[in-house]
Amino acid sequence: MRNTVSIALTFLALLIIHVQARTDPRQCTTSCGDIHNIGYPFRLRGDPSHCGDPDYELYCDANNRTILNFHAGLYYVKRISYADRVIRLVDVNLATGNCGLPYRSLGIEEVLGDGRYNRKYSSPHASFVRCSVEINSMRNNIVPCLSGNTSRVYVNYTDYMLYYLDIPRSCSVFAMALSGGSDDPKVNLPTSYDDIRRKLQLGFDLTWTVECRDCLADGGYCQFLTEERNRFRCSKEEDYATQLRNAILYLAAVFVIGMTILCRYILAPLVVFNFILHKCCSKRNRIEQ
Ligand SMILES: *[C@@H]1O[C@H](CO)[C@@H](O)[C@H](O)[C@H]1NC(C)=O
Ligand SMILES: *[C@@H]1O[C@H](CO)[C@@H](O)[C@H](O)[C@H]1NC(C)=O
Ligand SMILES: *[C@@H]1O[C@H](CO)[C@@H](O)[C@H](O)[C@H]1NC(C)=O
């Protein structure tokens, strides 16, 4: 009896907690510092669960700066544009404009592999390159605060991924930072370290793709149709199995129809013709005899 009562009470308590969670009367916070338009899919940490999407959580730090934690990198949110689904982010280290590395290295593959965000594969970014010898052709791109007597650090700003053949043999890329919009004009790519530093300070754009995130969660993958942002098809592995089965069925149907036509219009008349010919010839033979 006592057990039944305690189970009933526990159940009641859970029910009340559940109902309370669902009817949390608190409003969603829409503003933090300079960002006044926080809304779906974004949410602020600590807000009621009905606000935004947990995969797009931001937080407001002690200095009222809106921060996104993406794969353990920390980025200030500079702008959110719902019309074109673009969020502009700045790495917290690079935002100071001082000489140094990003808080965490971030390459384009990491963004594309995530599903929540998208950006053109070929878009501007900085590659930090460490070399064991001095590279004369990159002397304008030396990162002074990271270069010592035994190793030199350069930064190379490109709108394509550096292939290992693109950099001298004594160098290797050890950190990356995305920069600018996806479609920044080629002519504006900065060339000296000071210009690159200033460019990185302005941050980079990502588009968000809730549907692609859902597609990935559903076991599919996003097939971006064009380089155009956000235009993609959700494909699934089983699509291939279905396509294969349909192709086999189609070939089988074509084969059956082909055989039918062959039998009905070619073989059958041939048989009849052969029969007539045979009859005719044997008659002639008989007549000749
Ligand atoms: C942050 O914003 C809140 C609300 O606008 C304000 O009360 C608080 O003083 C701000 N804190 C700082 C450090 O600016
Ligand atoms: C680097 O080389 C310079 C000149 O050769 C020397 O004065 C300096 O102490 C060296 N620094 C380090 C960290 O080895
Ligand atoms: C980056 O590296 C490529 C290949 O070595 C080079 O052509 C280009 O000039 C470099 N850009 C900068 C800004 O250093």
TrEMBL record:
Question: What pathway is this protein said to act in by its record?
Answer: Protein modification; protein ubiquitination
Catalysed reaction, written as an equation: L-threonyl-[protein] + ATP = O-phospho-L-threonyl-[protein] + ADP + H(+); S-ubiquitinyl-[E2 ubiquitin-conjugating enzyme]-L-cysteine + [acceptor protein]-L-lysine = [E2 ubiquitin-conjugating enzyme]-L-cysteine + N(6)-ubiquitinyl-[acceptor protein]-L-lysine; L-seryl-[protein] + ATP = O-phospho-L-seryl-[protein] + ADP + H(+)
- Top-level taxon of origin: Eukaryota
Q: What are the subcellular locations of this protein? A: Membrane
Q: For this protein, what is any one GO molecular function term?
A: protein serine/threonine kinase activity
| Record-annotated Wall-associated receptor kinase galacturonan-binding domain positions | 28-91
Residues making up the signal peptide according to the UniProt record: 1-21
Which residues are in the Wall-associated receptor kinase C-terminal domain?
164-235
Topology relative to the lipid bilayer, per the entry, is: Single-pass membrane protein
Q: Which Pfam families match?
A: GUB_WAK_bind, WAK_assoc
**Which keywords annotate this record?**
Glycoprotein, Membrane, Metal-binding, Signal, Transferase, Transmembrane, Transmembrane helix, Ubl conjugation pathway, Zinc, Zinc-finger
Q: Does the keyword Transmembrane helix apply?
A: yes
One cellular component (GO) term of this entry: membrane
Q: Where are the transmembrane segments?
A: 248-277
Does the keyword Zinc-finger belong to this entry? Answer: yes
Homology family: Belongs to the RING-type zinc finger family. ATL subfamily.
For this entry, the protein name equals Wall-associated receptor kinase galacturonan-binding domain-containing protein
The organism named in the record is Hibiscus syriacus (Rose of Sharon)
Which lineage is the organism of this entry classified under, starting from the top rank?
Answer: Eukaryota, Viridiplantae, Streptophyta, Embryophyta, Tracheophyta
